[in-house]
Design goal:
Layout lengths: L1 E5 L2 E3 L3 E6 L2 E5 L7 E9 L3 E11 L25 H18 L7 E3 L10 E7 L2 E5 L6 E3 L8 H12 L5 E7 L6 E7 L2 E4 L6 E5 L4 E5 L8 H14 L5 E5 L7 H5 L4 E6 L2 H13 L5 E5 L13 E4 L8 H9 L4 E6 L2 H15 L2 E8 L9 E7 L1
Parallel strand pairs: 4-6, 7-21, 16-17, 16-19, 17-18, 19-20
Antiparallel strand pairs: 1-5, 2-3, 3-4, 5-6, 8-9, 8-11, 9-10, 11-12, 12-13, 14-15, 20-22, 21-22
Helix pairs in contact: 6-7
Bound molecules: S-adenosylmethionine.
Amino acid sequence: MRFELEIIKYVPPGDGFGYHGEKAVFVPETSPGDLVEVTVVREKKKFIIAALDKIITPATNRIDPSCPHYEDCGGCSLMHLSIEDQVELKQQMLKEVFNRYGFQITPEFVTSPATYQSRYRTKIKCQDGVVGFSAKNSHRVTPITGCRILSAGIMKELDRLSALGRSNCEFSLLQSRQNGELAVSVSENRRQVPLPGFPSSITEDYGFGPLKLKSSGFAQSNPFITKLIINALVEEVDQEQALCELYCGGGTFSLPLAGKVRKLTGIDISEASIRLAKENADLNQLDNTFFIAANLEKEMKLPKCDCFVADPPRKGLGQFLILQIGKSEADRFLYVSCNPATLARDAEILSQNFGFKLSGLTGYDMYCHSTHCEALAVFER
Ligand SMILES: C[S@@+](CC[C@H](N)C(=O)[O-])C[C@H]1O[C@@H](n2cnc3c(N)ncnc32)[C@H](O)[C@@H]1O
């Protein structure tokens, strides 16, 4: 079904919103003031999710997207706005999500020092020889030749990957901003394995010493913003503290933090990441770190500490983990999140049930030109 729609406001995470009769309609890639024609993607009793077909009258702040793939590619969804408008929108959405949970807080928002060519880690699909990203609302892969957000090194590598002539797989690429090294892995039986002929790891440096990272594991995507988040975390802790880092990965936050505190324990479910974190601690001659491979969502006793740091996946903290943090003796909690909705949900539980007061909230434009938003919340009691 197609219909005309006037977009009246933004709603989290940054979609345009309007009414079709009594029904609420959510349309990505639209802005208040747009008069658009849309197609229904999903219809429920009270709301419709629709896709933008045609702009009849554009909002006054629309700009021409600078990427040649913007119309077709499912990657970016905010390039029709200036970077200033994108940041204002994300700040507003972060505020709104927290307001819904009863927090009257206006977050700070940090823009990315580079907004184009700011992505140094990506997953690229390969479908019948076509290397690129999924097209909008589709499983089809659209070829990428002029992406504006990928690092120049990753863009150069795409031709080489196309030439391999592989079909139906996913490549993971990771580039070091510090020295340009590039690692590639490929999906095989739902796992990422090294791609023959390509390095599998890189060395990055966020200003606190060398950090080995693998393309097959987790790595932060925007090194400019990652560096700023690390600086903020390091400023929040003091040297007497015993710190426990939950979801620590290969140690991106652990190593800078370990240099500042008395003792750091890092926990992650991935044994490969824990091995890497230990290797990184050795590389940096740190003797106050302890890394444990464990599932934080299952019963697992957390070590005693003064402060927790966590950077969970999008679904946020598990109920069991929140209970443990709540019952601990820690009086500080630094929570990094890539999903404001689960961050605000967890913040409400921590503050209402366990006396953790939200003392700071900062958004970071990690994922420029998309509605995704990274945030750091500081809790104290
Ligand atoms: C957003 S990443 C953060 C990693 C780290 N902060 C970094 O910058 O590399 C989330 C991490 O959570 C880990 N993880 C996911 N589920 C988990 C679980 N149930 N228990 C422990 N760790 C988990 C993943 O292995 C991943 O390393």
